[in-house]
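Running log. JK asked me to keep both predictions on one page so they can be read side by side. First protein, sequence followed by its tokens:
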Amino acid sequence: QVQLVESGGGLVQTGGSLRLSCAASGMTIATNYMGWFRQGPGKQRELVASITGNNNTAYEESVKGRFSISRDNVKNTVSLQMNSLKPEDTGVYYCNKLSRPVAWGQGTRVTVSS
């Protein structure tokens, strides 16, 4: 059974940094097209960063230059380094496959105070 567990969220001030981690069991992150998604208050879940099996990355326009997605194939994790955080980055962050998504994890909450 595939399970995704996100961690690393918290409360930070504007301009702060957080590093989110997503641990996968029952699947191999190295061979999957993975993404980090964000669901802000009252908003739909949106894709903010992705990484292909060849480590090509892509970012939603508002996070370009501030967020960085990476994977650790040994630990079977995918991470999201978030710098220069803004209040609009507030939300619950999830990871998942972009191709044939699996059941969503519980996510990790990020709150950026102004």
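And the second, directly underneath as requested:
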Amino acid sequence: QVQLVESGGGSVQAGGSLRLSCATSGYTDNLYYWGWFRQAPGKEREGVAIINRAGSTAYADSVKGRFTISRDHTNNSVYLQMNSLKPEETAMYFCAARTPSTDYALPQLLFYPASFNYWGQGTRVTVSS
């Protein structure tokens, strides 16, 4: 079993920054992709950033140049550095992980959250104008 626990959410003014963390525990040897997704009230869950075990990354167009996903394999943690935050990015942010994919390339995984095997409970991010 795998557990994911997010932290680092909070309230920030537009233009501010937050760093989200995702601690992974349990049997993690089979995990190959980690991702950050977000869901605003009344909206579908959307992919924000993905990283694989080799360190390759993919980002949603809306966050490119402002968000950075990273992974520390020594402590099984994944991070999302978010800069220049916008009010419309207010949402619950979720960390997710999955095993290797034979169906989707790295960038495609942004659009298939249902393909991820494991999810955290989420951390709330509120950006005020």
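Observation for JK regarding the second prediction: The chain has a mean pLDDT of 96.
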